[in-house]
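Continuing the series of single-chain predictions for the mutant panel. This is the parent chain; the variants come on the following pages.
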Amino acid sequence: MKHILPETESDIIRNHVRESYLKPAVRRGERVFTVNAGAIHRSLGLRNRVPLVCAALRSRKFLDENGLRLISKTGPPSGQSTTVTFTYEVSDPRQHHTMLFVYWLENHPVYAKRVQHILARMEERQDQLCTSAFTVGEILVGPYKTKALPAAKQIQEVFESPLVEVIPYTLVTADLYARIRSDLNVSPADSIHLACAAQTNVDLFLTNDASLVGKVVPGIQFIAGLDTNLF
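Parent structure:
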């Protein structure tokens, strides 16, 4: 018999920050964002739980699960006050590439329209939409963490359809990855995305990470941002 553990207050705090602070920052293309403990305490309607809020926001679990690095923490020495403010950096670049699909799958109010337009133009031109198996895995992390199994199934169905070609990571990809890592100043995660695209000889690599725009990678004709007027 399977048992699902109830969500703790710390889980609620971490999930709130992920949904209300981290995801909006990534959607805006920002790598750094701040969170105030008092604001979180008030928005969740908590009472006398400021120490718990502060502990949740500086926890290794929160940082590791979301690919974050804690840059600074301001406030009193106790570190347990409504004035404590945490500044984070999105240190895991996978967030930026994965969010392109999240904008589409979650019908984001700002970016989903742009992504839908790009998909419509691709269909008109009979272009093939590609992504890596790596990205699919990253998108599925959220639903599995929240036990949203129907949502995970729907996501899998999208990537199993003819709409998207999912690029596997093979020995050829590994060789391309090594070449990209040795030639370009990009992260391991970015190198995986680029290697998968290069393996397929894509015409356009679309990203929300401005640091990759304009880089030259054999096998990829153009690397452009989401807002580039190519469609």
